[in-house]
Predict the structure of Iron-dicitrate ABC transporter ATP-binding protein.
Amino acid sequence: MRLYTQDLSIGYGEKTIVKDLSIEIPDRKITTIIGANGCGKSTLLKAMTRIISHQSGNAILDGKPISEEGTKELAKKMAILPQTPESAAGLTAGELVSYGRFPHQKGLGRLTKHDIEIVNWALEVTDTIEFKHRAVDSLSGGQRQRVWIAMALAQETDIIFLDEPTTYLDMAHQLEVLELLQRLNEGQGRTIIMVLHDLNQAARFADYLIALKDGEIVKTGTCEEIIQPDVLRKVFNIDATIGRDPITNKPMCLTYNLVKAAEKIAVNQ
């Protein structure tokens, strides 16, 4: 599937957050959006999945603006896991995952044999089948996040958006979630688009990076191209020391200092 934006501007009220953004998302790859707080990362994800409307321009999927796509049809093509999923109070893991079948249901909306097979498959592939009959609220943070991902998988979409999927998780659970997404990409060919705060996680797991600042693109490219001192200086106003990840041999940020005030002005000019 080809997904791209064309001169996309997004805002709230009269305030524009993302300005004339044109990007193309690589098919069947993991794309990560990085940038400082408030730069428009989450806003971009919400507009590309039609959670919020855009001011001008277009987000285009397979040659058709998403604004012209029917809600159920769009939900068959792309799924999104927001930063703070809505409460699943009172639901078991299996019930929550079954909600992912909604776009495919007809009539009274009862689960078919195929729906049940897909729900069980999504629970299996996310290693959450043992929680099928347990209340979502009783699970740990990492377990809950995997169940939410299972619900997105149950939609059977080629594209999955995730807004900071590792937020509030400890280091082990963060790695657990990111390795799961990597397996889904490599084993199932899913296109993954996510927002991450951790630069080294972004470098380790992404094939393609989009670096944003103040709603505009600073640079796009591979980890080798983006995790560089000059790019990180422009995006985050930091002086970064870059080394190599001993596991993946990808670039990683070893340490950094804040850019001094006078130098920061020069960076922003």
Q: What stands out?
A: The two ends are 38 Å apart (CA to CA).
